[in-house]
Amino acid sequence: MNTYEIKKLSPDLAKDYFDFFDNRAFSDGSPFYPCYCNAFNLSKDRMKTELYQKAEEYGNNFESWKRVLRESAERMVAAGEIQGYLVFDKGVSVGWCNANERLNYYRTGEFDLHTPPEDEAAVNCNGRGEVKAIVCFEIAPDYRGKGIASMLLNRVCEDAKAEGFKYVEAYPVKDGGYMGMAFTGPMHMYEKAGFEVVSQNGKSYVMRKTLV
Predict the structure, then answer these.
(1) Are 73 and 38 in contact (CB under 8 A)?
(2) What are 115's strand-pairing partners?
């Protein structure tokens, strides 16, 4: 029986973070490669300067986009802007959950990197310390179906409660949507963990679990 270890992301784990995204996260040919899970935290202005303009400077091709996304994520991990949890199997990172203060995100749920929605950081959130949000799960293909996402979800909820948050929020697509939306986590997983639907935003449902 495998024993997985969950660690909260810190700058000291940057090497493991990028090792996961570069070598295992999308080894099944996922359409989201290359992704370093940073666009949720980028304002439109930062997307313009850190991504679009830099990509033009680097040649505006696949490799240039990979480079600018990685460079941006490197800065954000070092600064503690990207937050969440890595899962390890025998010291190797095999899974990731992006979970953060809701007001640290500029968008949630589904969006197109090239036509992102308006910044929506304050939607359904009255202030800091109220809502911990989950925007992404990514599990290495060989480790899917083993309950790792549920383990991560439980850890997020436990820590959020200990940190004094009132709610944990997530943004799944009903009935799983299509494979490209798998990163939001399945609706039934949240229901099993005690989340309830509070609203709908486009194709995504906003689900919350009350902690206090």
Answers:
(1) yes
(2) 112
3-state secondary structure 169-202: EECCEHHHCCHHHHHHCCHHHHHHCCCEEEEEEC
Return per-residue pLDDT of the chain as tens, 212 residues. 568 999 999 999 999 999 999 999 998 877 778 899 999 999 888 999 999 999 999 998 999 999 999 999 999 999 999 999 999 999 999 999 999 999 999 888 776 666 666 655 545 566 788 999 999 999 999 999 999 999 999 999 999 999 999 999 999 987 655 444 578 899 999 999 999 999 887 778 999 999 97
